[in-house]
Design goal:
Helix content is 73%, strand content 0%. The relative contact order is 0.14.
């Protein structure tokens, strides 16, 4: 394998491993009941959290996990697609961003659909919307970072 092929393989491995984390979290293992068994004692120990306040913090931590998970998936997919279909002289293209966003959104839909069949989980449209928003924000952040760095984004995008 040449260095370019090794780099391409590494970018896809990173995206696939992250997808594996999401799939694992979609199981009964990461149900609210199971995460509360870990999070409540930890928050109580570290911050003296009162049991009455735990449900709010538990909800916020779980939704933050959704956001971070799908933001990261979208980011890793962008890197993988950019390396799979490189365009000489370009580091950003709308089709890399678009396919990365739609793949992350599809994973979110399938994840929530899968959870709807598990007794300890529920499929939730609000989670799909949160996950898809995180994936979209990741693509916007990538664009803004590359724009700020002054990297070439191609003829279809004029940056002043």
């Amino acid at each position: 394998m040449n260095p370019a092929q090794k780099h391409l393989l590494k970018t896809w491995i990173a995206a696939i491993l992250w997808l594996g984390i999401i799939v694992t979290e979609s199981s009964n293992l990461a149900s609210a009941e199971n995460t509360s068994r870990i999070l409540y004692p930890l928050l109580h120990l570290l911050f003296g959290l009162n049991p009455a306040h735990f449900p709010v913090w538990h909800f916020l931590i779980r939704k933050t996990g959704h956001f971070v998970g799908y933001f990261t998936l979208s980011w890793l997919l962008f890197r993988a697609w950019r390396d799979t279909f490189p365009i000489p002289g370009r580091n950003w293209a709308i089709h890399w961003a678009r396919i990365s966003f739609f793949m992350a959104a599809l994973v979110s839909c399938l994840d929530e659909w899968h959870q709807s069949y598990l007794p300890s989980r529920t499929g939730n449209l609000h989670d799909v919307m949160l996950d898809s928003t995180a994936a979209l924000i990741a693509q916007v952040v990538i664009f803004l970072i590359l724009r700020r760095r002054g990297l070439k984004t191609g003829p279809q995008l004029k940056i002043s």
